[in-house]
Amino acid sequence: MDIEKIYGNLPTLETERLLLRKITLDDVEAMFSYASNDEVTKYVTWDTHRSLADTKQYIDFVLSQYENKQIAPWGIESKETKEFIGTIDFVWWQPAHQKAEIGYVISDKYWGKGIATEASKKLIQFGFEEMDLVRIQAICFVENTASARVMEKVGMTFEGILRKAMFVKGKHRDLKMYSIIKSDIR
Q1: What Rg, from alpha-carbon coordinates, does the chain have?
Q2: Hey, what domains does the chain have and what are their CATH numbers?
């Protein structure tokens, strides 16, 4: 399995409440509404968006990734409201090792509703069934209890704390590591 095969034509994935689909320039304002919120960006590796131009620049990067058949995120859309409410992706994928890492960010208006869990379950299923993955992992800052809870709810196993494993926003951060392997799925 190679990256171009999956990302050459990123498929739309559907869950009970969500569409995981390509991001478009029509999503700039909706993305900015959460990406400009310091509370939402507290536990991510990227800086809070300070202007619509920051968000457009990011979406332009994503569109370029789609065009070049490279790893890029899915947008998360609520089927009920048709609102763009976040992103989810494999932040990296190593086809030769059959492993990848998942990441997500959700608008604070949708926190506590199981959105990240629902989207993550679908992406994990896609990874095992369509990308021939054997291992999918996820990390979060140790203080990000909500993200750790999502990982637990999707069936991931806590593997440990990676001490001072990432330098983000001016300091070294400890990370919790979780994973699920294909044989864990029953």
Answers
A1: 16
A2: 3-184 (3.40.630.30)
Cα(134)–Cα(154) distance, rounded to whole angstroms? Answer: 16
Helix-helix angle 115-130:145-153, to 10 degrees: 50
Distance CA 31, CA 48 (A): 11
pLDDT tens-place values along the chain, 186 residues long: 577 888 888 999 999 999 999 999 999 999 999 999 999 999 999 999 999 999 999 999 999 999 999 999 999 999 999 999 999 999 999 999 999 999 999 999 999 999 999 999 999 999 999 999 999 999 999 999 999 999 999 999 999 999 999 999 999 999 999 999 999 986
Question: What is the DSSP secondary structure assignment for residue 65, as one 8-state letter?
Answer: H
Cβ(81)–Cβ(25) below 8 Å? no
